């Protein structure tokens, strides 16, 4: 029976040994930034990882925080397949909220607890080069898909990870806002799951952990699906059992796995110390995704 503090620490030992010196990319969703206590616990988890020799890289979202700012300014917002339609006025607010308030809040909380976090957007050191995303919509499979213009929504065209390596090697924790830059210096709003997956792929991360506000991928009866392969996930998207913001999350997890990231998980950030529980316990929490070639 594992009930002493020592037993719990020892359960973590093989994982600590395995992950030491490796990179773990954590996507911290806006819906998981709930209250002060949870935010502090998340900050401590990240510092603990760094302290034991793991390289955490945090990519944060901020969807609800953007909604609040847009509402206060009287700008209405709509979503197409989980992506925010981003006209120029919306883009200004998105950059201000993600690169400003949300990024600095995550950074300063980690620093307050004794870590050394540094905030970046994709513009810093050319970290995230972006291009305009094209969204296809197909209602009738006998007809060609309709092309939807999402405004300044970006797709990642290239990640230049040097700045991440430089910071991580010097003991800093990079905190990345999902704003990208185009070849002409234009600013793009990129879904944070997309950025996290592409950064994890560029860093050949050991783990991609997507932290959200639900236990993982839920079935129609709301039960947690603890492991999900690519085929099952695509079927769930087709029959709308996976919808909204869960679509980019699942797609991104699968694409990171196909690009060489070892494991991808979706977990609930409302569970205290969710990141530690996922990484350092035998049972883990949440949904683990499996790519086609690893369907076992
Ligand atoms: N099958 C599903 N399982 C779990 N959540 C789902 C599913 N389908 C849609 N969702 C929705 O996706 C949301 C998570 O996406 P999102 O709100 O974008 O999170 P975040 O802000 O953390 O990126 C859930 O809160 C839920 O409303
Ligand atoms: C294109 C697009 O939709 N970008 C997102 C960026 C923030 C984000 O992804 O935040 P969460 O992870 O908290 O949802 C947005 O504007 O809301």
From TrEMBL:
The record marks 27, 249 as: Transition state stabilizer. Substrate binds at residues 62-63, 84, 189. Gene3D superfamilies: Acetylglutamate kinase-like. Pfam families: AA_kinase. Residues 22-268 form the Aspartate/glutamate/uridylate kinase domain. Pathway: Amino-acid biosynthesis; L-arginine biosynthesis; N(2)-acetyl-L-ornithine from L-glutamate: step 2/4. Its main location: cytoplasm. Its EC number is 2.7.2.8. Keywords: Amino-acid biosynthesis, Arginine biosynthesis, ATP-binding, Cytoplasm, Kinase, Nucleotide-binding, Transferase. It catalyses: N-acetyl-L-glutamate + ATP = N-acetyl-L-glutamyl 5-phosphate + ADP. GO terms for molecular function: acetylglutamate kinase activity; ATP binding. GO terms for biological process: L-arginine biosynthetic process via ornithine. InterPro entries: AceGlu_kinase-like_sf (IPR036393), AcgluKinase_fam (IPR004662), ArgB (IPR037528), Asp/Glu/Uridylate_kinase (IPR001048), Glu/AcGlu_kinase (IPR001057), NAGK-C (IPR041727). It is found in: Cytoplasm. HAMAP family: ArgB. Belongs to the acetylglutamate kinase family. ArgB subfamily. Catalyzes the ATP-dependent phosphorylation of N-acetyl-L-glutamate. This is Acetylglutamate kinase. It comes from Desulfobacter postgatei 2ac9.
């Amino acid at each position: 029976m594992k009930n002493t503090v020592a037993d719990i620490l020892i359960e973590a030992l093989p994982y600590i040994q395995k992950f030491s010196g490796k990179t773990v990319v954590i996507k911290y969703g806006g819906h998981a930034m709930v209250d002060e206590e949870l935010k502090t616990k998340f900050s401590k988890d990240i510092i603990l990882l760094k302290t034991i020799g793991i390289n955490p890289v945090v990519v944060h979202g901020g969807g609800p925080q953007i909604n609040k700012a847009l509402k206060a300014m009287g700008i209405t917002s709509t979503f197409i397949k989980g992506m925010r339609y981003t006209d120029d006025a919306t883009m200004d607010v998105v950059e201000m909220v993600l690169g400003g308030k949300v990024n600095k809040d995550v950074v300063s909380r980690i620093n307050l607890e004794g870590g050394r976090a540094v905030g970046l957007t994709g513009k810093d050191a050319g970290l995230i080069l972006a291009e305009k995303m094209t969204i296809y919509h197909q209602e009738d499979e006998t007809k060609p898909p309709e092309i939807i213009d999402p405004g300044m929504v970006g797709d990642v065209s290239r990640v230049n990870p040097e700045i991440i390596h430089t910071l991580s090697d010097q003991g800093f924790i990079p905190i990345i806002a999902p704003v990208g830059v185009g070849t002409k210096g234009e600013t793009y709003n990129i879904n944070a799951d997309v950025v996290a997956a592409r950064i994890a792929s560029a860093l050949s991360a050991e783990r991609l952990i997507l932290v959200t506000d639900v236990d993982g991928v839920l079935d129609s009866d709301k039960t947690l699906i603890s492991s999900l392969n690519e085929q099952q996930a695509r079927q769930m998207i087709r029959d709308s059992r996976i919808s909204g913001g869960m679509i980019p999350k699942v797609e991104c997890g699968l694409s990171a796995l196909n690009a060489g990231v070892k494991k991808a998980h979706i977990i609930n950030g409302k569970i205290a110390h969710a990141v530690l529980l996922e990484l350092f316990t035998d049972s883990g929490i949440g949904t683990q995704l499996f790519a086609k070639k690893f369907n076992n």
